[in-house]
């Protein structure tokens, strides 16, 4: 009798395990067909492209990828890791294709794309730093993900691109990038460089009243609404940047 009960328990555990496997398999297939699934696949492909630039995909790079997957692909971590392993064994398309698809899906906001670039730089840096070939690849990805020049300059400086060579020139380039960003921020708000914090706040309030999504006429077509939302986002970013600089 005891043997029969043990056998029944084993059969139940096996059956339960098979059900879980089928469920997660079906769930992952459904996920791949969604917009979020396509975004995940494009991102994983970019991970694979950068990883393979190092010649060998090592454990450090895989751990970096897993941490990113854990935070961003909720409930699909195992699928994401398996997808990465699968893509690492394949010849992939050009990174331009994946970047273009990511932008066309309109899911990743600018800060999401910037975070992704930071992680890609981290992966590129793990094996012997970032050489000329790697930086060319990373700059290309940044270009097609529409990463701003000043943010790219920050990443290059952060990850010591060039193995400490020409660090003085990199510092100068970084300073010029931030100076340019400052000028652009003032221009977006319709102000002159050197405007006071009060003037900046007043300009932001006036532009927010005009371009905030809640104030856009409902009869406008989707393209105009999207343009207005993009402009409002730029206005907000410019205000936040100037506010941060002047409050230091």
Report what the structure shows.
The chain is built from eleven helices and no strands. The termini are far apart. It is mostly helical. The chain folds into two domains: 132 residues, TerB-like; 83 residues, Orthogonal Bundle (Helix Hairpins), CATH 1.10.287.110.
Q: Which class best fits the helix and strand makeup?
A: mainly alpha
CATH architecture of the largest domain: Orthogonal Bundle
Between the first and last Cα atoms, what is the distance in angstroms? Answer: 77 Å
Q: Work out the radius of gyration.
A: 24 Å
Number of helices: 11
H/E topology pattern: HHHHHHHHHHH
* Mean of all residue-level pLDDT scores: 80
- Poorly predicted residue ranges: 19-25
Summary, kept brief:
Helix content is 77%, strand content 0%. With 248 residues, the chain is mainly alpha-helical.
Which labels suit this protein?
globular; TerB-like; mainly alpha; 77% helix; 248 residues; Helix Hairpins
How is this fold's topology laid out?
Elements: H1 2-33, H2 35-53, H3 59-72, H4 77-88, H5 95-105, H6 110-126, H7 132-144, H8 149-158, H9 167-188, H10 197-211, H11 222-246
Helix pairs in contact: 1-2, 2-4, 2-5, 2-6, 3-6, 6-7, 8-9, 9-11, 10-11
